[in-house]
Design a protein that fits this description.
single chain; about 110 residues; alpha+beta; 4 strands; globular
Length: about 110
């Protein structure tokens, strides 16, 4: 669900016109005008709105202009059934200019 929030652009989902961060849009911006803090805030607000069971603890955005790509690492907790049990995880999303992405979980 987290990947859906990150990769979906607003107005792509019927009945949810504001859903999504639309990370792909930033791949075509000049590096000098990309505000990574603004992207982080967008991620946090979208996850809070549409995936409230996910609590993000860390976001790192690395722009790779020579490769026309970005690497986003997110650490998060998932609250399981509103109980004291939770799942902690970290993943890295690498998105390139073709719109292709890959995810990896660090070992």
């Amino acid at each position: 669900h987290l990947k859906n929030v990150l990769l979906t652009c607003p107005e792509e989902r019927i009945n949810y016109p504001d859903f999504g961060v639309c990370l792909r849009q930033y791949l075509f911006e000049q590096e000098s005008i990309i505000d990574t803090e603004q992207i982080k805030q967008r991620i946090l607000s979208q996850v809070a709105e549409y995936a409230a069971f996910i609590k993000i603890t860390f976001i790192n955005i690395q722009l790779l202009p020579s490769e026309h790509s970005m690497r986003i690492t997110i650490s998060f907790f998932v609250n399981l059934n509103n109980s004291v049990n939770s799942l902690e995880d970290t993943f890295t999303l690498i998105l390139d200019q073709s719109g292709e992405y890959e995810t990896s979980v660090p070992t």
